[in-house]
Amino acid sequence: MDQRREIINLVLKCALICSTIIIVWKTLILLTNCASPMIISLNGEQPDFRGLGDILVLTNYDSASVQACDLVVFRIEGRDIPIVHRVIKVRAKKDGYFKILTKGYMNVVDDRGLYPSGQLWIEKKDVIGKVYGYVQSAIFRFSYC
Length: 145
Fold this sequence. Notes:
It is a single-pass type II membrane protein. By secondary structure, the chain is of the alpha+beta class. Helices cover about 25% and strands about 25% of the residues.
């Protein structure tokens, strides 16, 4: 009987931890208006955040316009991994629709070579979010020293 009670206690604690994580994640989605409120940087070429493993906090508010020099996260059709690059040109309309042209920090030319054939701009539907801030990851710092 005592062992059974311990197992039930353990299962309830695990369920509490899992539900807390889900509640925090869904709250972040609501607060940032972004389906992916946080992503992890896979390289360290941007000078705005330090490097590999940094957690980028994203927002995607309709009222917040995307401007040149903003860091945005976007997904290219046919590719699984989102890209974080700086906006260099914006074509915005009054109804909130926009198209942007991006460029990587270390790249000499803009990102049109990354876009699918015939596509010259990233559209609003391709943008996952705008980088609001970042959290440095000490875990990756120690593992790559």
